């Protein structure tokens, strides 16, 4: 029964189609709430490979829901989404941190043997977590040991390791100060200059790391180029 519920797609839900192309293609996308009421209509949209978008709009308009729909975590609504899902990563406000060695928590969702120690050290240092380098092989309940800000930096370290081609950030720096937030975005673009980046963030300072802003409202979506 569990497998049936997980694999069955409700009639009229959002369809995600894996593709090899670099663009993110959205067709006739409508986002609904869980109760079936309309949240926002996105329509048709193509996000070119390598572009960097920041999603704006008032609270509750559907910014995070849009990212979750693209990432496959929200199926309420209709429409079709297609992009290279195999090489994509999604960073929510609080990421899952498994219990075990720090290397395991850093490598997630891959296994700890996926990356060598040198790569893990570089990733931690780039995420401003150099004090954790000596603890890579230490076992702990890292979800309790690390502060919310450290967990968000750990999530960025995962990105530096995995090097995805598509990255969704859903308020992934909300627990960080402005200086650290700026540092992480700067290093993100230095490590992954060609990444397709879609961010939901409330700090206007982060607009400078993006080239387009998509503003959501009850009337739909409007797009503007950023200087």
The 3D shape can be described as globular
| N/C terminus separation | 52 Å
Content-based structural category = alpha/beta
Task: State the helix count.
Answer: 7
Order of helices and strands: HEEEEHEEEHHEHHEHEEE
**Strand tally:** 12
- Write down the Rg: 18 Å
Strand content: 25-35%
What is the element layout, followed by pairings?
Elements: H1 2-7, E1 15-18, E2 24-32, E3 38-47, E4 52-57, H2 63-71, E5 77-83, E6 88-91, E7 100-101, H3 102-107, H4 117-126, E8 139-140, H5 142-145, H6 148-162, E9 166-170, H7 178-191, E10 196-200, E11 212-217, E12 220-225
Parallel strand pairs: 1-5, 4-10, 4-11, 6-9, 9-10
Antiparallel strand pairs: 2-3, 2-5, 7-8, 11-12
Helix pairs in contact: 4-6
Brief characterization of the structure:
This protein is an alpha/beta fold. It is built from 7 helices and 12 strands. The protein has helices at 2-7, 63-71, 102-107, 117-126, 142-145, 148-162, 178-191; strands at 15-18, 24-32, 38-47, 52-57, 77-83, 88-91, 100-101, 139-140, 166-170, 196-200, 212-217, 220-225.
Protein traits:
227 residues, 12 strands, 28% helix, alpha/beta, 7 helices, 29% strand, single chain, globular, 6-stranded mixed β-sheet, 4-stranded mixed β-sheet
